[in-house]
Amino acid sequence: MGHLIPMVEFGKLILHHHPSFSVTILLVPPSFNTGSTAAYIRHISTTVPSITFHHLPLISLELDSFPSTAAVIFEVHHRSNPHIRPTLETISLSATISAFIIDIFCTCALPIGAELNIPTYYFIISGASDLALLIHFPTLHNATTKSFRDMNTLLHVPGIPPIPSSDMSKPMLDRNSMDYENFLNVTKNLPNSAGIIVNTFERLVTKPLKAIREGESNPGGRTPPVFSVGPLLASEDLHGRGHDCLNWLDKQPCKSVVYLCFGSLGLFSAAQLKEIAVGLERSGQRFLWVVRSPPSDDKSKRFLPPPEPDLDSLLPAGFLNRTKDRGLVLKSWAPQVVVLNHESVGGFVTHCGWNSVLEAVCAAVPMVAWPLYAEQKLNRLVLVEDMKVALRLEVAEDGFVAAEEVERRVRELMESEKGREMRKVIEEKSVEARAAMREGGSSIAALGKLVELWKRA
Ligand SMILES: *[C@@H]1O[C@H](CO)[C@@H](O)[C@H](O)[C@H]1NC(C)=O
Ligand SMILES: *[C@@H]1O[C@H](CO)[C@@H](O)[C@H](O)[C@H]1NC(C)=O
Ligand SMILES: *[C@@H]1O[C@H](CO)[C@@H](O)[C@H](O)[C@H]1NC(C)=O
């Protein structure tokens, strides 16, 4: 969903400003957690009929034999690749394909665009800082023979603050892993595209975009044009309006509630959930907390959606009762965009997934950064050190966060001068985000440039 929604939103943006285009989205078969995408695709198909979804044939995989989620995703794309060319050729019979836009996981389809003479662009669902790191990755790779996880050093990447080697994306930590190989291949191919479209806006963080455009990220190599067309957010929270939590939020004072949610893949152990509960209770703050079941010990279940959490057994005895006047715990899901934009919400404890970050920026809600996977540690670095809109949470080496730390950071976010300063900064960013998406704003202008290129092609 985290990849699909921004892509669909980009399609909607194209159609809104340039209605002479049509958009076809090729979907590889979902290999796990399929429920949510099916409902979402049905919803978009009926509400935005000018977006067509084309489903590529099903692929059966022995999920257990893959070392990671990313490995499954790369394999599905690799196996789907033979269907891409015939699909594009069929579409070409009735329309000219102006552009072929691919996610980074679809890198194996990049040569097909070239074979068919269709300009092929990358669509990056993470931010400009991650893009600067991705483009620079082959250079970092060449500069060492070690795995980043074993280096214990600061890496210097043009446009981003010095990054501890252990903060690299998880798939990039172990040089000998299949994920590393796949991501290295992606990063080598990024400069070979016609351009890179990124879900950010020009003024959110300027240094990484400048470093890329001035050629510092890929020294000696090619730099394709970069188009910031965001923020593209989930504009329809499917069941969002009318959700019970909104009634509860209506009754809370302005900007008094801290919202905690860790994305669709962020799972905590039972011990960590209890620790968060203790910290929240001691903080004395109002909270809205989305709790998901801990990861299953059963390896064969690791790709299945987790079951509904049993709150009474997961949370400390009496917690729900003791906090019922100032806290609400939701099972598994919240209508996040609506929640963040509710006037009662004043802080966000987040896993730093890029979509969540953009949603917080647009809603002007300062954050506590608790990165869990993918490029989220890099996002933390940028949020804390570059943008100054988030507090860093002390995380032990094994990933554990103590109740005292949860308590301290939540208080600091909601009550301190620093919290207030962060709110001021993020309010300015949210104004800039809205300006970027208006007619004449930077993101709409970038889209206009792309469309000019597509019309000439
Ligand atoms: C690397 O990327 C190219 C596409 O640019 C693709 O043809 C090739 O199969 C990829 N290699 C691996 C090992 O995935
Ligand atoms: C990395 O090293 C390889 C092999 O020497 C070379 O072909 C490639 O151009 C280098 N890439 C970068 C980005 O330095
Ligand atoms: C909830 O807490 C109150 C006192 O704070 C207590 O009287 C009541 O028995 C508790 N209810 C449950 C279900 O534990």
Number of helices: 18
Report the major sheet.
6 strands, parallel
**Overall strand count:** 14
Mean pLDDT: 94
The shape is: globular
CATH topology label of the largest domain: Rossmann fold
Strand order of the largest sheet: 11-10-9-12-13-14
Strand content: 5-15%
CATH architecture of the largest domain: 3-Layer(aba) Sandwich
Oligomer: single chain
Count of individual domains: 2
Helix content: 40-55%
**CATH class category of the largest domain:** Alpha Beta
CATH superfamily of the largest domain: Glycogen Phosphorylase B
Task: Please describe the structure with a list of short key phrases separated by commas or semicolons.
457 residues; Rossmann fold; UDP_glycos_trans_CS; 12% strand; UDP_glucos_trans; alpha/beta; 14 strands; binds 2-acetamido-2-deoxy-beta-D-glucopyranose; six-stranded parallel β-sheet; single chain; 18 helices
Explain what the structure shows.
The structure is a single chain. The chain is α/β, with parallel strands linked by helices. The protein folds into 2 domains: 4-230 and 437-456, Glycogen Phosphorylase B (Rossmann fold, 3-Layer(aba) Sandwich), CATH 3.40.50; 244-433, Glycogen Phosphorylase B (Rossmann fold, 3-Layer(aba) Sandwich), CATH 3.40.50. 42% of the residues lie in helices and 12% in strands. The protein has 18 helices and 14 strands. The protein has helices at 4-17, 35-47, 69-80, 84-94, 110-115, 128-142, 178-189, 207-213, 244-250, 270-283, 311-314, 319-322, 336-340, 354-363, 376-386, 403-415, 417-437, 442-456; strands spanning 23-27, 51-55, 100-102, 120-124, 154-155, 163-164, 195-198, 226-228, 257-261, 286-291, 327-331, 345-350, 367-369, 390-392. The chain has a 6-stranded parallel beta sheet with strand order 11-10-9-12-13-14, sandwiched between helices. Helix 10 links the parallel strand 9 and strand 10 (286-291). Helix 10 packs across helix 16 (403-415) and helix 16 (403-415) packs across helix 17 (417-437). It is globular and about 65 Å long. The mean pLDDT is 94. The chain binds 2-acetamido-2-deoxy-beta-D-glucopyranose (3 copies). The site of one 2-acetamido-2-deoxy-beta-D-glucopyranose has 2 residues, from loops. Keywords: Glycosyltransferase, Transferase. GO terms for molecular function: UDP-glucosyltransferase activity. InterPro entries: UDP-glycosyltransf_plant (IPR050481), UDP_glucos_trans (IPR002213), UDP_glycos_trans_CS (IPR035595).
